[in-house]
Amino acid sequence: MEITVIVNYGSIAFSFPTDENGNNLENGFKAIKKLRLSASKIVGATNVTMLEKQAKPEMATQQKSGKGKAETSLITRKVEELLLPEYFSQARTTGEVRLELQKRTGIPFQSRKVSQSLGQLALLGKLGRTGSKDKHDFRYFRP
Prior knowledge:
Layout: E1 2-9, E2 12-19, H1 25-43, E3 58-63, H2 71-83, H3 94-105, H4 111-123, E4 128-130, E5 139-141
Antiparallel strand pairs: 1-2, 1-3, 4-5
Helix pairs in contact: 2-4, 3-4
């Protein structure tokens, strides 16, 4: 089975193939590091940033036959199918949305996954968001 590893650095995505044994991982990551260094020389160091040593790049693996069964994509679909737009006529917290999804689907989703899904919908403009990241008090509403 072939697996594609995707590494995101800001708005740039690098990908390379591997398999379930992780063949080619080391070479793939070395190539990405080399490409990033080359890109910073071409476009200027201000446009390409290097991550801190302790930070890990965001990685996602996709199987070619995958159908988006991850919990966050399922939550996003259920929010769009079951809750948009009428449920968000009032501003709702992540906890309120999580409980409503559980009531309608019978699935006890993880709070952090519901939060991630709501954040993605807000970035796409399907929901509005108010509150503070520092205080973890976001509320989501119909824009």
